[in-house]
Amino acid sequence: MNKLLQILFLLLFCAGTANATKLKGHVYDKQTGEAIVGATVVLENPRRVTNTGLDGTFEFKDVKAGAAKISVSYITYKTIEKTLVVLKEDNDHLKFYMESDSKSLDDITIKSNAVSSTDQGARRLEKNAPQLMNIVSGRAIEISPDLTVANVMQRISGVSIERNSNGDGQYAILRGMDKRYNYTLVNGVKIPSPDNKYRYVPLDLFPADLLDRLEVYKTLTPNLEGDAIGGAINMVMKNAPGQLQVNANVSTGYSQLFFDRKFTSYNASDINYKSPYEVNGKNYSATQNDFSKGTLDYKYKNPAPNLIGSLSLSKRFLDNKLGVVLAGSYQNTYRGSNSTFYNNSVVGTDAYATITSKSYREFSEQQQRTGLHGKIDYVFNKDHQISFYNVYVNLKNQQVRDAVTTTYNKDYDPIAGNAQLVFDTRSRLTEQQIYNSTLHGDHKFFDDKFKVQWSAVYSSAKNDVPENTSISLNGLEQNFQRKRTSLVNTNPVTRRWERNTDEDLAGYLDLTYRVLSGDHKLDIMAGGLYRDKQRSSFFNNYNLAQGADHANDIYGVNFQNYTDLNLVVSNPTGAVANSLTYDATEQTTSGYGMFKYTSAKLEVIGGARVEHTNQGYNLLFPAGESFPKGNQIYTDVLPSLTAKYFLTEKAQLHASYYKALNRPGFYEIVPGKVVNEEFQERGNPNLQRALADNFDLRYELFPGASEQLLVGAFYKRIKNPIEYTFQADAVRGQDIYYSPGNFGTANNYGAEVDYIKYFSKVGVKANYTYTHSRINTTKTTRVINSTTGDTEPANVNQERPLYGQSAHIANLSLLFKDTKKGWDAQVAGAYTGPRINTVSQFLNNDLWQEGFVQVDASAEKRFKGGISVFVKANNILNTPTKLFIKGTNPANNDIKEDLVKNGNTLIRSDYYGQNYLVGFRYKFN
């Protein structure tokens, strides 16, 4: 009997299996036809639940043939319910098209930023954008390993980043064009830079979690400002959806660097933000009591864990007429680096560098990054709406640089430690901030035929470095912790104040009139802007030394702490009377005219922009400069033409030509000089703007909602490119300055491939950019005079790439997403090829950065109730920054260190350590 039951059960099981089949399908957005990722699919009787994958697909296995009820739901979309018949086979072509459930007000659709900040929304914007564009969505930023906008930038094709002293990204280089050749926007409005020298904005100021998306423009149309030869960066801030939305996260972490060594800090609370000159007047004689002792009171300890958090609230009120969004972010992190720097000089006829000394440096930095964003928008009706938004970011960086320099001689032995030493410690507090306030209006007239957009903008940027303090001692024996005797130098302590402020007032106006409608659309557009920029720059420094009766005091014997020093001010009235204290102005007036023609197969945008620039400076304390006042006035006509040819609904060809310029910064045309870390810098009042013709062609394929294949090529011809080089003073040839100059004509061209593909739960993001550029620079070498037999200097032209340009840049990210179980994970690798870091005045002596790979990773697990836990890991391989000179000098063979590899001489290496972060996130709606 038991055997008979077993046989019957087996037959029933086989029969059931024979009637079971798979149920597979896709879920799409009805309006755009794009796949929806993460939609919930429910199959009833019995109830089973799954979610769509990265390509919008879902699958149920072992489904019984016959009638079945299925429902599809997703946030901001209307739920779909259907009854269908499951066949024994061929159930893999089900398609569901979801309609938006957005709130409506008098035919105005107010879309949730939950849609616009998705990968699908980003691909849609890239496809429809008039200019060539790459976009990183807010959701991609959220689950990435990146905390700042600068680090997000490195994931974009054709973009490499420059690191700051703690290894974080700081500046973006677009398509091999140095950071000076791009500008930064917030919600489409240009913001000033707090940098004390240049126009470009340090992108590490901006916390990434304030963004709805990050856009990179690689070409320009006439309605965009024309000073972007490399491209433009637009940070689109969070918007107000139709319903209450709350996003909050908090996390903590640590740097591997401080598991291995102590963190150096000082008391910055009593720093004097104004110099004695500013407090007491120009004739005041400063004493030691006018300066803070806290900046010399160094502490060595383990830092506290990092603390990072953000909160955003958004909702619409008054029947969705009024939208409000408030967002804030705070990051308190402890970072640093260990650096070895080999100082060198050029001697002999071969012009190869000879290593003369070595500096070992430890950087310890506490970064406090604050970001605030608020926006209010009001919709009067379908034709009129206004918005008012404010953005404030602040980065306070408290840094200590501890260094010991070893001077080499022929008998030097690093083990015996028998060399002359110099100990240098610098305590520096840098505070940078940007504020932008914009009132914007959108208006439509005559049944949408005539549109008016306007903006009134106030922006400010500030950079403050108060009481920058350094102390230098001579050492007799090698010991980094100063436990052995050291002698105070002649003027061991310096106090330095630097501050600059930019204030911009700007007005924008854009007019659009539709001439043709229907299958052939033609819009005529015109507009312009006026911007008034005011800059003030202040510099002052004081030198302090021991009195004559204490000039030879010994550290550890005569004094135990730097705060015990009894110092006399060598220049008691300060050094404010220098060329770095100046005022500057810039008025920019521009106008444009353009057209946009659209048909079923073609879109063409063309026109021209005219920009008039009046830039000037006034040295408040000229010190013998030939041009204590100066200005540059010029007008540029910048034509452009963009065309898109639609091959299919998902494929298109995108071509562009535009002309652009690059203006000098204020600091670059002020004819003053300043002593920096290892060299002197000075401005160049004869520096001209650069102009460039830019050509682009790209094939664009968008096969799925979040997928793309972009293959393109670009060419840039730059007239008078601005590069920094070491140059001899025209009057006193023995003085060498690092100065900006114009260098003829440069050519820059390359190709890009950008690929995103998803396979259910797994995705691949990859891009590669090849860039080739050439520029000629006059270099100094030494030759043997055939008559006298003596060596003498000679100038030759050397061809090289543009500063900061890498021939090869690549990114590869592997993604995993399981919506049903709430998992998101990725591993991201970025490769940056070798590039020039510093242009030397000598032949074959340029300083190059070695190519490097950086690997980061992140993962997030979501739970019920909107709670999720995430982890982030940065610089997993502890990738260093290494600088080298091509070639070797036999004289360096006497140094008992491994500095020569593959025919190159190592000059500098910086190690930053790994960084880890763990936290949780809460989302409501």
From TrEMBL:
Sequence ranges assigned to domain TonB-dependent receptor-like beta-barrel in this UniProt record:
392-876
The protein's matches in PROSITE patterns, at most eight in alphabetical order, are given as:
TONB_DEPENDENT_REC_3
The UniProt keywords, alphabetically, are: Cell outer membrane, Membrane, Receptor, Signal, TonB box, Transmembrane, Transmembrane beta strand, Transport
How this chain sits in the membrane, per its record, is: Multi-pass membrane protein
| InterPro entries tied to this protein | Beta-barrel_TonB, Beta-barrel_TonB_sf, CarboxyPept-like_regulatory, Plug_dom, Plug_dom_sf, TonB-dep_rcpt-like
Domain TonB-dependent receptor plug, chain residue ranges per copy = 127-232
* Superkingdom of source: Bacteria
Query: Does the keyword section mention Transmembrane?
Result: yes
Family recorded in the similarity comment: Belongs to the TonB-dependent receptor family.
> What is the name of this protein?
TonB-dependent receptor
Q: Which organism is it from?
A: Pedobacter alluvionis
